[in-house]
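Example 4.3 (complexes with small molecules)
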Amino acid sequence: GGAADVSEAVDYTIYGIEPGAGLTELAHNTLDTYDNLDGWTLEESSTGGMMTVLREAIDNEEPILVTGWSPHYKFVEFDLKYLEDPEGAMGDAEDVHTIVRLGLEEDKPEAYQMLDRFYWEVEDVEQVMYDGEDSTYPEAAENWVDNNRDAVDEWVADIEPVDGEPFELVSMAWESEVASAQVVRTVLEEIGYDVTVTDVDPAVVFQAIANGEADATVAPWLPVTQGHHYEEHEGDFEDLGPNSTDTRNGIVVPEYMDIESIEELEP
Ligand code: PBE
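Answer. The structure with 1,1-dimethyl-prolinium bound is encoded below.
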């Protein structure tokens, strides 16, 4: 079937993830932006719920529209495509930033320096994610650090060891962010920090850094995904810039669906 059949078959619904996700706000923005999505609904859920619905649809070769992002293992498990988004309502390619609390440079200069140097490629994130899905993310991160000694040696070069100082890292429970937090945890522990990783909603990540409860995060996607939390707290944190680039959000469908653009959907 064409786009009209597809729209009816999915009951004019896009299947979403957690209400607190930036992706969820972008999807609401998309419903507001496109006139042809008048009367459409975003079904908010969870990442696990979205994956279950996606898997079931693909098992039955039925149409399905989900909010999706890269890097994520759904693109390895299934043949999927992003719908074109001529209005740019889901944002463009993004960077993932390292954001630290004010005063960290003075209080924990060793950690600050390592975090300032931390940078890796999407392929590295993916490697930890895929390895993590088969074992555990802490183990996968430790393997990545062992196998990428040259990169890690540059991040820790000339940094004096510390003696069990506590370090509070805040992150988000999505796989790519679990992967980056575990790699940073592993490297900070090498320097001698006693690291706690806490996964919270994006809003709480920014609150915790801004009020000094947490030391750092390597999770926020910018400029758009977590953009309004960033703007709300601007001035109350230090942005050390991208630790990774070329992540992406969008409306995602199975390859077998005969539709290429959000604009083709029908009200
Ligand atoms: N995500 C993954 C998150 C950030 C990283 C795109 C699902 C979100 O806030 O939407």
